[in-house]
Each structure stands twice: as structure tokens, then as C-alpha cells.
Specification:
Strand order of the largest sheet: 2-6-1-7-8
Bound molecules: 2'-deoxycytidine-5'-monophosphate
Number of domains: 1
CATH architecture: 3-Layer(aba) Sandwich
Order of helices and strands: EHEHHEEEHHEHEHHEH
Number of strands: 8
Low-confidence stretches: none
Length: about 230
């Protein structure tokens, strides 16, 4: 039987994972899922509803009340939280500051992983995040682990937010990234680690096109046996 292809892209915050994942999905006509957007939307709900993260019952009830949906338009992630489009709001600093804390909660991770695994059933998919190659899809055909110089990452993020009109300093961004990296790599539940079989991609000095080619080369051998939701052209 033909098998669907899963490409797992993990790595540190603001390494360009989603840029690469989107470009790859577009090129291969795969489904793209930004798993970070899911943790961000959950965080937004927790913030808005003042959920006490030390109260298991509250967390459990909150998770039951959260319904997330992805809508892909032109390979841009549009995510709804209980039918409200929140794609912009989840990128803003209040959410960025809290998301790593929320992502450490076991119950939250369990629910997100379950939903993510469902999305990968019988579809060719590119998913980016922190635990995709280790926990969500440990048998993914291609696993990439992305990294880049922390200063370069902060500058890239700064430019992105500046273009959106956010007033934030480079130092604040640098600190936020360092904080998230620390939380993500040291948390108890599925921390960010490189899967043994993941290929490291350091994009400090290479172009987006070079990154895309690097991954395409790794996916190519699997395309011959894949199910039909791709047209590689
Ligand atoms: O990819 P991102 O920066 O939008 O992710 C936001 C946060 O969500 C990140 O700091 C850690 C968490 N996250 C996670 O714990 N597991 C994932 N698979 C994706 C994101």
C-alpha cells in the first residue's frame, strides 16, 4: 500500500522553520501545519480567561472548551480559536511571553499531540514545531532539526515585528528567544531535542532557496512511493 509522507521540522524559536515548511509544502503540494500556532492559540485562550495553570481542573475544562481549526489560504496559516480568527493576535508579545509556560503543561501537550497526529493520517504533510520528529511523528520519513545564530534569529524576528508596526526593542526579542529556548529545551514533557535520525540544518548564512533545496533533496526519494496528494513540479 502507498504511504503518505511526513516531513518533521523542529528547532529553536525564530529559526525560519515555518518559512521553510511553508515553501516546502507549497512546492510539493503537501499540507502544512504550524504546530506552534496551536500552542499559541491555547495560550491566548488561557490569558483571556485567566486560567490558573496550577489548577488541573481549570486546565482540563479550558482544553475541553478550546476548538482549533486551520484554514490554509496560499500556504499562510490561518487559525481559528472557537471560530474566531486569531492568526495575528497569537504572534504578539503577550502570547509570545507566555507560550513556553503553557507548553510545559502535560495535559496541554497530550491534547495538542493527539490533534496533530490526527492531521497526519493519510495525508502528505509538513509540520513544524519542537517535538514533531521525537513525539508527534517519531516515524516521519524526513526529519530536519533547524538552528541558527541567536543574534541573527533575533534580528530576523525584530524586522518581522517592526514591519508589522510593533514597538519592541531588539534586546527584548533576544531575551524572549533565549527564554523560550531555555524553557523548550529543559521542560520535562517532550523537550526540544534533536531526534537521533534528524538532519541538522544551520541556516545562519544560507539563503531560503538553499534551505528549500537541501530539504527537497531529502524528500525526493520518498516521492516515488507516496500517495497521490502531491504533484512535485
Ligand atoms: O513555533 P513557535 O515559536 O510559534 O512556537 C511557540 C511556542 O510553542 C514555543 O516557544 C514552544 C511551543 N511549541 C511546543 O512546545 N511544541 C511544538 N511542537 C510547537 C511549539
Amino acid at each position: 500500500m502507498d504511504k503518505n509522507i511526513v516531513v518533521a521540522i523542529d528547532g529553536y524559536s525564530s529559526c525560519g522553520k515555518s518559512t521553510l515548511a511553508k515553501a516546502l509544502a507549497k512546492k510539493l503540494h503537501f499540507v502544512y501545519v504550524d504546530s506552534g500556532a496551536m500552542y499559541r492559540a491555547v495560550t491566548l485562550y488561557f490569558l483571556r480567561n485567566n486560567i490558573d495553570i496550577t489548577n488541573e481542573k481549570q486546565v482540563e475544562e479550558a482544553l475541553k472548551a478550546i476548538h482549533l481549526n486551520f484554514h490554509s489560504r496560499d500556504y499562510q496559516t490561518h487559525i481559528t480559536l472557537n471560530d474566531e480568527e486569531v492568526s495575528e493576535e497569537i504572534r504578539q508579545m503577550p502570547v509570545s511571553e507566555k507560550v513556553s509556560d503553557i507548553s510545559t503543561i502535560k495535559m496541554v501537550r497530550k491534547e495538542m499531540v493527539k490533534q496533530q497526529q490526527r492531521m497526519g493520517v493519510s495525508k502528505n504533510i509538513v509540520m513544524d514545531g519542537r517535538d514533531i520528529g521525537t513525539t508527534v511523528f517519531p516515524h516521519a520519513e524526513v526529519k530536519i532539526f533547524m538552528t541558527a545564530d541567536p543574534k541573527i534569529r533575533a534580528v530576523r524576528r525584530f524586522k518581522e515585528l517592526e514591519a508589522k508596526g510593533e514597538t519592541i526593542t531588539l534586546e527584548e526579542i533576544f531575551d524572549n528567544l533565549a527564554h523560550r529556548d531555555y524553557q523548550d529545551t529543559t521542560r520535562k514533557e517532550s523537550p526540544l531535542v534533536r531526534a537521533k535520525d534528524a538532519i541538522v540544518l544551520d541556516n545562519t548564512t544560507i539563503s531560503k532557496q538553499q534551505q528549500l533545496e537541501f530539504v527537497l533533496e531529502r524528500v525526493q526519494p520518498f516521492l516515488k512511493t507516496a500517495t497521490s496528494n502531491h504533484k512535485y513540479s
